[in-house]
Amino acid sequence: MSHIAEILSSISNTGKRISTAARNNRKLSLFLLFSFLLAAIIIACVSGLAASPKNSDDNSNSTSHAILRSSCSSTQYPDLCFSSIAAAPGMAANLTSPKDVIDASLNLTITAAERTNFTIERLLSQQGLTLREKTALYDCLVDVDLTLEELHETKEDLKMYPQKKSLPLYADHMKIFLSAAMTNQYSCMDGFSHKKYERKFREELINSLTHVHQLCSNSLAMICNMTDTDMMNAGNTGERRLEEQVAEDGFPTWLSAGDRRLLQASMVMPNVVAAADGSGDYRTVSEAVAAAPTKSSSRYVIRIKAGVYRENVEVPKTKTNLMFVGDGRKNTIITGNRNVQDGSTTFQSATVGTFSNLPGI
Question: 252 preceded by cis ω (within 30°)?
Fold first, then answer.
């Protein structure tokens, strides 16, 4: 009997231990389940908070890219237009209008033109360059400098658009600046012939000049599209634009009253006189130009008396507001003799040209 009692007691104790273990297992299971659910809830909340700005950014980027693609669709090189802006860090993130896209395109064009300038300076630093090669490279530096100036002028007009001036005037100014910037790239390349000794410079510059030209073209196309659309919405037709540009006296409306008087006057009072016979302030036109004030805010009139002036007159861009008045096209003659044979370029052979002097030549 004692033996049976021990067995029953052992069975009872085992049952109690099993029951206790089961309860502990259930508690552990419930604790683990609760912990898992709590962790899932926390992760979901954090993910939701993180997802909201991302979705907002995605929507913003989607809108910006849509505006970018729409603006670029009006250009001659749409793939270049879209990819160059989209790939630039931070440039495509906040595009809200076609004006923003044009501004981004102009910034890229300025950067590309500056790189071209560095390339030209590197080529000029080479030893053993011929006079012709130096002249052509200096021409390119002038062309790039003009391009950068015209691009910055376009950006200034774009920044104020359409607040200060009339829509047609804004449109004409920006189109003129960018058209000139495009032409400068051709002027640079024209300085190099296809002869073997000059071909290396063409090959060094052709890609960068073409790139700048295409970027200018894209900016110009987008400006045309934007301004034409705005003028159409404002009711500015082509006829109205013409009327706005020409006043009753036949001169453009942007011409100042003072300039109108100068152009209409039968006699103009000059600031200085150039006379080949020595009867004026200077014997050559170039001397008169050199003596003119820099960055003049008013017209500076140089009278060129009758005679033959055998010179190439170079007008640096710092000599602003110059006005030449001759004694008639058959009486006042300016003639130069620069040509390709003597090592000059077409750019340098202009009888009267507006460009910087070439140092070191």
Answer: no
Longest dimension (CA), the chain: 155
pLDDT 10s digits, 243-273: 455 566 667 666 677 777 777 777 788 999 9
Coil, helix or strand at residue 75: coil
> Hey, what's the torsion of the CAs at 50, 51, 56, 61, to 10 degrees?
100
Strands (E), the chain: 272-274, 300-304, 307-310, 313-314, 322-326, 332-335, 352-353
**pLDDT single digits (tens) 289-321:** 999 999 888 889 999 999 999 998 988 888 888
CB 220 within 8 A of CB 179: yes
Give this prediction's pTM: 0.68
Find out whether 64 and 104 touch, Cβ atoms under 8 Å: no
DSSP state of 252: B
